[in-house]
Write a structure and sequence with these properties.
Blueprint: H1 7-28, H2 37-50, E1 54-55, E2 67-71, E3 74-76, E4 90-99, E5 102-111, H3 117-135, H4 143-156, E6 160-161, E7 167-169, E8 176-180, E9 197-200, E10 203-205, E11 211-213, E12 220-222, E13 228-230, E14 233-236, E15 243-244, H5 249-252
Antiparallel strand pairs: 1-4, 2-4, 3-12, 4-5, 6-10, 7-8, 7-9, 9-14, 10-13, 11-12, 14-15
Bound molecules: magnesium ion (MG) (2 copies).
């Protein structure tokens, strides 16, 4: 069942999206060679609580942390750890909040120091494919229009799309219907209606699309060990043009 949101509910989802956007920027300000992913997680939890919200992932299905921190070949759902980030790594920071009975959910993949040219291309392509997907998140379209836009953009650049994890509706639950795959065919999938709130989140691999689950039961790795990037925004389906609730402005204005 797909739950359409009232404008009041969308207001609460927007407040959550803003808090997640600010938290991602706060984490991003601390990303540099030598910091551990555990330290980033502590920064995020303190910051979210200082905003009056609660970490959305902590305890969700038993997830043990505030952030999913997924380094290099980890696609999503990495645990914070004692691993020290090093120059040339990439780290996906996926963050959730709960406030006012609703969830926020967004992700951004940061370079650590300077990354090689192909890795930067992967980051740029994944970031841009998210915007291509958002362009399709309008009433009357279907989820396949979003997926096709992401897939065709990334595959044209020689990257591959993870199939096992997908975007989703969001509201009082973090994961609601419909599923929003990052691959698909135009005109196929679930029809989009005004007031649907969805998370679009391309997970794009530098190499092959195949992935495997870590023995810890959470972290998803690329099968070939190549890097993977992940960007996510929460958007409201509207007529004509999607309303984007997440902003990366706080992150990207920090870049010199
Ligand atoms: Mg997320
Ligand atoms: Mg999500």
């Amino acid at each position: 069942m797909i739950r359409l949101k009232s404008e009041e509910e969308i207001g609460l989802l927007k407040e959550n999206a803003l808090m997640v956007s600010k938290t991602l920027a706060e984490v991003g300000r601390h990303i540099e060679p030598g910091i551990t992913t555990k330290e980033l997680d502590v920064i995020a939890e303190k910051y979210i609580r200082s905003l009056g919200a609660v970490p959305g992932f902590l305890g969700y299905d038993g997830f043990p942390a505030t952030l999913c921190l997924s380094v290099n070949d980890v696609v999503v759902h990495g645990f914070p750890s004692a691993y020290k980030l090093k120059e040339g790594d990439i780290v996906s920071v996926d963050c959730g909040t709960v406030y006012g009975g609703f969830y926020g959910d967004s992700a951004y993949t940061f370079p650590v120091g300077k990354v090689d040219a192909r890795t930067q291309q992967l980051l740029d392509a994944t970031r841009q494919s998210l915007e291509k997907g958002i362009e399709q998140a309008v009433a009357g379209n279907r989820t396949g229009d979003i997926g096709e836009a992401v897939q065709s953009y990334c595959e044209a650049l020689g990257f591959s799309v993870v199939r096992e994890m997908v975007g989703h509706g969001i509201g009082r639950d973090m994961h609601e219907s419909p599923e929003v795959p990052n691959y698909g065919r135009r005109g196929h999938g679930v029809k989009l209606h005004e007031g649907m709130v969805i998370c679009i989140e391309p997970m794009i691999n530098a190499g092959r699309k195949e992935v495997y689950l870590d023995e810890n039961g959470w972290a998803v790795h690329t099968a070939d060990g190549a890097k993977s990037a992940h960007f996510e925004k929460t958007v409201v389906v509207r007529h004509g043009k999607a309303e984007v609730l997440t902003t990366f402005e706080f992150i990207e204005k920090d870049k010199r």
